[in-house]
Design a protein that fits this description.
Length: 206
């Protein structure tokens, strides 16, 4: 797998997480399998390949679909996904310049990972732990991500935790994307290549 394909997968990880956030905020529901893989990705700190971060290419299929749609003809009701993705990418750039904050995030993820024998990564306790990591280490950074949707869902503590945990997953994918050489210039001038690569990856046999 070449570097651009790996960058596309990591970027799809961003769009997967942010699309799930948007769906949760608007409807209280989101693709369960995609959510599992995004949460799983947060704990993959020593993966050998980009696809392993998401437990295989299938684990980021939803994100590849979202990336394709967002870069070609985004639906009007999905503008939140675009907005959240841009913010996540900006935040990841700031975090990479803040070694102390990154160290704190890493240590807290390791602490949560140490409890995986007790609680699976989709357990409410783990989701709450990831949500707290986001709230206490990232939410105060600018640009602050203001999630919009149905107040009925956004006031639900369980939905709030899922949203924050997924934003953490999105930032994890965005940092990976930058580490692989991804940049905002790529999003501006290589959109067609990103769409084409996402399509090719989706067509690969599972």
């Amino acid at each position: 797998m070449n570097q651009f394909e790996q960058q596309t997968i990591a970027l799809a990880g961003v769009y997967q997480a942010t699309a799930l956030v948007d769906k949760l905020a608007r409807s209280g529901q989101a693709d369960a399998e995609a959510m599992e893989k995004s949460l799983y990705s947060v704990f993959q700190t020593d993966a050998d390949t980009t696809t392993e971060v998401f437990s295989g290419l299938d684990g980021v299929r939803y994100g590849l679909q979202q990336l394709q749609q967002q870069l070609t003809s985004p639906a009007r009701e999905q503008i939140g996904t675009t907005r959240y993705s841009i913010s996540v990418l900006l935040l990841s750039g700031k975090l990479l310049k803040d070694s102390e904050r990154l160290k704190q995030i890493s240590e807290r993820i390791k602490a949560a990972a140490a409890k995986l024998d007790l609680y699976d990564y989709t357990h409410s306790n783990q989701i709450a732990a990831l949500a707290d990591i986001y709230s206490s280490t990232i939410s105060d950074l600018s640009p602050r991500i203001m999630v919009k949707g149905d107040p009925l869902h956004l006031q639900n503590p369980e939905t709030q935790n899922r949203v924050r945990a997924l934003l953490l997953a999105g930032i994890r994918a965005a940092i990976l994307w930058r580490q692989l050489g991804g940049s905002r210039i790529q999003l501006l001038f290589k959109r067609k290549q990103l769409v084409k690569t996402a399509k090719q990856l989706l067509e690969q046999p599972t």
